[in-house]
Amino acid sequence: MAKNKNIVEQPNWKPKVLIIGAVLGALIGVGAAYLFTQKADDPMTQPEFRAGDGLKLGLMVLGLMRGIAELGD
Fold first, then answer.
1. Would you say residue 1 has pLDDT above 60?
2. I need a labelling partner for 24 at 20 to 30 A (CA). Which of 34, 52, 64, 67 fits?
């Protein structure tokens, strides 16, 4: 006799997490850009962004992503 197994469908949570992550990332990015532009003293000048600043920022972002990836373990 075949046993009747109930199949329980699990909701697909991955798209929801991706959408939430994208929205949060966009909001944080806009906030960071706003703070960066507010750093300029004179409204007619652009704030300076050097290669070293970009490297530091990139390494910080990679460290943050590594920490987030380790949360899932």
1. no
2. 52
